[in-house]
Design a protein that fits this description.
two-stranded antiparallel sheet, mainly alpha, single chain
Amino acid sequence: MFDGICNVCNHWVQFVIKRDPKGIFKFLSLQSDLACSLITDHNLNNKPLDSIILIDKDQIYTESTAILHIINKLTGPIRFFVLFWIIPKKIRDKVYRFIAKNRYRFFGKKESCLVPSKEIQNRFIKTETESGKKDE
């Protein structure tokens, strides 16, 4: 799950899609009703909308740990960054939160959530407003 109106978050999603040829990652905007429901179901209500949230099987990852888990499954030189695991989580997350707190100021934001092109629509989880029926 990602902040659908954040420019850097949207660029991150595009970046991941290009380096995930097997299509293992599916995306959902944090602003969607389904995301709100998942956040509640997984007791993540204390997490503000400034954290990427990765749900992998029954495990929940947020902030820098989510990023590193994603990078670990991508292809290409980006995998070099898994070396950041050696940095203590407390420090990684402090840097993550600084960027997250200032993301709109540094990178701007969109008026509305990303609308995926036909080529990548299957990479996004459809929600009630997109499919005309209940969340899938």
